[in-house]
Specification:
- It is a single chain.
- The protein folds into two domains: 83-211, no CATH class; 222-440, no CATH class.
- The chain is mainly alpha-helical.
- It has a two-stranded parallel ribbon with strand order 1-2.
- It is built from 17 helices and two strands.
- Residues 1-32 are annotated as: Disordered.
- It is a multi-pass membrane protein.
- The active site is at 367.
Amino acid sequence: MSTSNTVRHRKRAENYDSNQKNITKQNGDVDSEFTTRESPLTVLIDNSPHIRALYHIFVVILLMLLFDTMIYDLVERGKINIGLNVIISGFGDIKRGALLWLFEFAVVLAFYPALRIYAAARKLFRKNTGVRDSLSKLGVIGLIAVEMVLIGVPIVDLGRRHLALASSAVVTCEMFRFLMKIHAVAIACAPYGENESPALPTFKHYIYFLFAPTLVYRDHYPRTKTIRWAFVLFHFLEVAAIILYNSFLWERFILPYWSDYGRQSKVEAGLVVRGMFACVLPGFISFLCGFYCVLHAWLNAFAEMLKFGDRLFYEEWWTTSRFSHYYRAWNRVVHSWLRDHIYKPLAPRAGRAISTFIVFFVSAVAHEIILALSFGFFYPVLLMEFGVFGLLMLPLTASSGRRFPNAFNLIMWLSFFFGNGLLWSLYSMEYFARKNCPPSQSDSFFIPKSWSCPEVVLKPDWTFQNPLSVLY
């Protein structure tokens, strides 16, 4: 590494350390102000050879999965498979997915002139309190109506006719992203026409905010001076590699264990348990890859293209021992929106406990809608993990996590492994049970098929043997 690069990386690390000290208040909440700073992993990979070695390990795992897929299919079938079949099927019917996205984008664009009309009316009648109050009520009703159209049409369309898993996930994630964007703009511009009211965004700034890697609206954001196109290309290549990574994990760990699930009327419990534990490691790797793909590579690429200076999309959640800090640090982009638009307005009236519960409930329901529309069935595994067990862990680790940080950091990582293994196995079982099991009158979007088909049984000669009997 050259001397100039070393100095530049050292300055980034120093700026990151100083910014980290300023982003956490005494009450543990994260400051909402923006400043120019790099993502934690950018700093760590640039400055720590140990973290860079871990990065290289994941690259090598990807290469080994690629070699395994190519060589196995070459020997078995006489053709080379580079994992594109899963990607093509996952992003199937991309035309319909693109049309749904364009509809969502059109609704968000139509919101801007409606906002300008509302603001002009408030300014015109700013001295008439009665009319202004009526306009405020109409504005709330209009905002709710726009949001209902934005999420209602895609939900009805995807619920009526299932779209491929990845395409549906993109459409529903974008649906919620646009929803939070226009809500943030509406709340920020609601006081327009009053004393010291905020300025309305120009159309250019509005478009910028729609694609900026933040959900919190501000009149100005810190900007960088130049665009490093090599940096952008590198992160987009990482996104493509991680998509390929997950396709290999699906082909090598999901399909062999679960693709035939439901073809037989009965399945031995041992095979189910073996398959569930076989999903733990790939499920956890997919969890890490998903975090890196979306919250680091994708957001950093867009931040660089838009010269968006604040790259703190997450904090160092991997070192924490408290679930409260993990939920704040894992995804600062969404957390900041939930904090500003749900928790803070509710906390003075409902109290911190109820407000926290509502935040978890809203977030869990949104995640469950994405999964239900993506898979084509409702199976609230993530809802239970995130909205029930995750919520219970908040008070359990609040004080004990501070007293025993190493032990509870270990417990957190254990929960990540176990929880993601359950997600990968249970959703896969349900997905293939609905494909392979014969149809019946009791089939429903909301009732899991894998609970009744196939029947999970023990071996006929199964008996429990005391593992300590060898000592006698």
